[in-house]
Fold:
Amino acid sequence: MVDIQNCGARSGGEFDNTSAIQQALDSCAATGGGTVRIGPGVWMSYTLYLHDNTTLHLEEGAVLLGGPDPLRYPEIADNPWWIPARCSRLNRRTLIYAEHCRNVGITGRGTICGNAHAFTEVAMDAPQELHWVWKRKDDRKIPGRAILFVACSDVLLDEFKIENAAGWSLWMLDCERIQINKLRIDGEMRLPNMDGIHLSACRDAVIANCIIRSSDDALVLRSHQEQLFTPRPCERVTVSNCVLKSGSSAIRIGWSGDYAIGNCSFSHLIIEESFAGISIYLPEIAPIQFDPPRGPDCPTPPEKTLPFAVENIAFSHLIMETQNGPFMIRLADDACCAGVRNIRLSNVDAVSGGYPFIRAAAKHGVREILFDHCNFSIRPCRRNLEHFAEFSRSMIFETVEDLHFENVTWRRCCPVKPESNQLSYANKGGKNEK
Structure:
């Protein structure tokens, strides 16, 4: 075990420990691997690079604090494993990075703090009802992910907390054999684009016993083929015994430019009041957008991409409360889709501001959708976004083959009282608390 203090690290939150912690990681890897210890205290750092056979261990009371200077997070260089130039929002910066590592992990009961407040400000130009939402000072000059693993295998992430990420809390791209256990992801709900866990083009992943509260999507399965040299599916993912809260979708599957996603299960989850529940969503690709990046300053998109496809996804034993619909499949009219099939929801109890809905075209191949032993209680919704508003107010299932309802109940219920808990962008008072 290598202690970062033995390499010159100093706590307190003001001293830059990047070189000291990196020295500890490098020396540990040079001797065949092992554990790098971060003890109690606040340890400020910029980008750190993990290695094969190495574990970064944060003891209880340890805080790894992201530094406040955005330009001291170097942009990830071009490499054989992925295409950083096509990254979402053109952001190539991260606090912790692992690239093509084997047997690598982060453990312990400490905290990784993204220091998001250093990179955001109050959105004074936001609509009146959202005037307390924050915005980024610059999309590209922030650590866009607290943790980013690319092309890694045999990954262990255990027990620690990710707090106030400046962007996505955890992004895993093209990784395999992943264990994520007892993580707590928490942040100010007014932070922009603070997602929980993104698994993109990953295989054989287990996520269990986590608590995730994020301003954006909490759990995301994607394939992100435009960021890879060779498209890979996202498959064989198991999620269980987690508590989720989201300012967008608690669980989102798919996005523009994605490829195949399948053979996944989500079970025994509690979705605390979230904006939406489960979304299988493929929006159209606009001429100017963040993800995948399109616009005058963006790299040329690939000439050909493989079609989107989702199959064999099971959701069981879920309790959820959502402002909008508890479940949706929404595919853009021009979406290139090879099919969405064998989606099963069983033993679901949902209180929501809208109905489940499916909007697709016949060419998308949506079929074999089962709702089994589900209880849906519908209350008037407080707020809708464009991709929910038109459909979640009524029960709509467009162009679906083999749609089955077995032991499903529906009822109307009273709206929540104004004094009850709300999501951050709709909470009472709207004070800009830091």
User: Anything to note?
Assistant: The two ends are 37 Å apart (CA to CA). The first helix runs from residue 18 to 30. The CA atoms of residues 284 and 334 lie 7 Å apart. DSSP finds two helices and 32 strands in the chain.
